Amino acid sequence: MKSRILASFLLTALLLLGTACSDDSSNADTGLSQEQLDATTGLYNLTEYIVSPAQDLNLDDVSSENLLDELPCLSASIILRDDQTFSLFQMQLNISFITGPQYAISCSYTTTTNGFWDIVNNQIVLSQGEDGTYTLNGTTLTRNEGNNLPDFQRWVFEKQ
């Protein structure tokens, strides 16, 4: 009986020692350094939504390539977390061709996309429903598509 209790005690002690010695650093599973995580993670808000050709959606006789100047309802945010998950909150747009370079563009509804992010070739890559590659320059995330309407040229997000 004593040897059974002693064996149970030793087994429990070994299990506790095995788990107590595990690496608790937050970036052990991500493959990214803490410096990379610190520089990358956080909240980014949309500061530019560039389209071509320029539009005058608010009818002030001033066309702008930045839809944020034309649509006060337009917004988007990206949260990049330490565990390499992200959330993208984005206002969807209704875009319809009118004539020539003119489009009817209006805000529709907000979507939320969740997934994983990584750094590949010095670029932030979002995956899982929102595949996209962003360049990180200081506190600015930029996604360049280079397309004309009804698509977009560039999205720019600034870290808060």
Structure write-up:
- With 160 residues, the protein is of the alpha+beta class.
- The chain has one domain (34-159): Lipocalin.
- It is 19% helix and 49% strand.
- It has helices at 2-20, 34-40, 67-70, and strands at residues 42-55, 64-66, 76-80, 85-99, 102-120, 123-127, 132-137, 140-144, 154-159.
- An 8-stranded antiparallel beta barrel has the order 1-3-4-5-6-7-8-9.
- Strand 3 (76-80) and strand 4 (85-99) form a beta hairpin.
- The model is unreliable at 1-28 (pLDDT under 50).
**Rg of Cα set:** 24 Å
The profile of the biggest β sheet is: 8 strands, antiparallel, barrel
CATH topology: Lipocalin
Order of strands across the main sheet: 1-3-4-5-6-7-8-9
Could you name the CATH class? Answer: Mainly Beta
Helix content: 10-25%
Low-confidence stretches: 1-28
Average pLDDT: 85
* CATH evolutionary superfamily: NlpE, N-terminal domain
Query: What is the terminal-to-terminal distance?
Result: 63 Å
Strand content: over 45%
Count of DSSP strands: 9
CATH architecture: Beta Barrel
> N-to-C SSE series?
HHEEHEEEEEEE
Give the helix/strand class. Answer: alpha+beta
Helical stretch tally: 3
Q: Write down the domain tally.
A: 1
Outline: elongated
Care to give the gist of this entry?
This protein is an alpha+beta fold and 160 residues long. It has one domain: NlpE, N-terminal domain (Lipocalin, Beta Barrel).
